[in-house]
């Protein structure tokens, strides 16, 4: 009798433990590189069929005022994974080979946060937060990693994929693009033909991860290297779009989204999986027909105009997030970490973060989001703009400008350097930031300038030679 009772207790404990594990949804983040606001059909693109992005829009929620934490690769990825303004943690710009810094391993990430509540974690694709071990994903909460350490244009090849021999071209000194499995180099990429396999390779591994981890909650981070240049599409997508190679690449990325959703359907996981799809920043416009669209917003990548930071965001969780909805609340990629923590019951990072909990918005419990303010930082630590609700104050700053000759067929055009004057824009009536209304609304200017001063006290501002009180250092790489 006692043995039967013990057996009953054991079985009950197993059942309860399994049920508790399944209460937590699986979480997938798919992160594109340089995909602009207007690059896919739900956000206005024509000439490129994107049926799987369309399905995301139909089955989930689409955001129209979602901003990357900063308009460049490394900084944006740091913002997403840590919930912090990237300059708070010393992660700015785009790390190049030989960089002497990396994300500090003491910073908590989405992966390390979710591991605390039982998640299996994996990353496939582009990392760009540290160039060598021990600064790869497996040291930041990911159980496994397969991918490249930085952007795939960081290699010693020219724009045609040929080895650079000109000693005056510093790009020729860069190493061959490596591929890593965890901390071990397992491959090298030497041609555009090999780069054409990246989207499908990472997708295949992501699908396998879903199949192999369906019994426990998992977090999958799939960071596609494209449509960042150089563009490369596999044979099954070459010539398939009306917009040349760029359109072919977008179609292959759309296929990848479809493969992930197909795997969730096949494994009967869709209803218990939160799927998040977005981009790191806007399009690199000086590459012309090899760049995407900012959807009518001003400028693009590496600028603090809306075309640089405003990007698509889809979230899908059948039965939990209302289908076919559009949300216009101001949100940033820093807000994803605290939202996922609230969803899963995971503790927030012990260090200060800047993200806010949007779970009530996602679940339809409220129509108003918690964020009213967003700071546009760029460069090492330049405060270039402040947004408050629908108002945006652009501060005096130097900037790149794409109002020069664009490139063609994968060759870059020129980027001018300009001095941007202070201006006030009403994004509700002027999303293209064309009409300065600071003379009409001096009280709004005063309010946003006060917000800027608050940011300078907290985070600093190199433009006025102000050090922030609450910034943390990145890891120093030897």
UniProtKB/TrEMBL annotation:
It comes from the Bacteria. Transmembrane segments: none annotated. Residues 25-346 form the Sulfatase N-terminal domain. Keywords: Hydrolase. The keyword Hydrolase applies. CDD domains: GALNS_like. Belongs to the sulfatase family. This is Sulfatase. It comes from Chryseosolibacter indicus. The lineage of its organism: Bacteria, Pseudomonadati, Bacteroidota, Cytophagia, Cytophagales.
